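Researcher: Re-running this chain for the archive, since the previous output was lost when a drive failed. Same request as before.
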Amino acid sequence: MGVSKQPLLWLLGVGLVVSGCPGGSSDTTGVASATTTTASSSSTGTTSTTSTTTTGTASTTTMTETEGCEFLLCGDMPPSANECDQWEQDCPEGFKCNAWIDDGGSAWNAHKCVPVDPDPDQVGDPCTVVDGVGSGVDSCDLGAMCWEVDFETNEGVCIEFCGGSIEERICPPGFFCQVWAAAVLTFCVENCDPLLQDCPNDDLCIPSGEHFICALDASGDAGLYGDPCEHSNACKPGLYCLNPEYVEGCQAAGCCTPFCDTSKPLMCPGATQECIPWYEEGKEPPGYEDLGICGIPQ
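Model: Regenerated structure tokens:
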């Protein structure tokens, strides 16, 4: 018998601290109801408040997260007028179709043609933005955008746009197409292993929909087991922010608890915690068959 998916997790749609990331409302099935504030940092430069209300019935079997609005902009806010098509890259020669913020806000919401740098940076290379993160003008080559930008230095790394179309998305092997901000941002994102925490640059490996992706570590001096948390990337590598009922003694909106290996069920730090399978039995992606997270069964 199948079981309902249970987003016990502190949802990615609620305050993941990333480059220039605004808040967005998320409606999904679950058991949590909370309001979180995205903290200011050199990688965000802004403070935004996000309200999330979820209702439903808890599953005691799996921890798979349902898809919400991810961590940029929810689908109920469509892009404004676009000058170009990111999938087609239909700008004049010497220009590229890039995402930008056309209303002075904090959420990417449109595409426009911008000049390609004469000596462009390639995917994976350090890059810079011109006139702020939301300008759309950067030093990356055609088909790439400067991402994870530090607001103080305007420096980031080039990340590749997905190829193909919104219906048939194409990325290199080992990557998947992550769509954010009402399809304004469509990036090829590398899969990672939350048990190995194999992301580069000390990034975290945390969930995004049905996948696991690398994200900036915003834990600072906190983020150990049992520490309060309000953001998906506010825990140390190997831990994740869950709703309080799954972590012993948690008196906050969420608390950090570790991922675990279901083949080693006695590795959880809490006396009443179990290694709960992340995926429903039989639906585990290859390589994630033994993935779980430490939580108190509900």
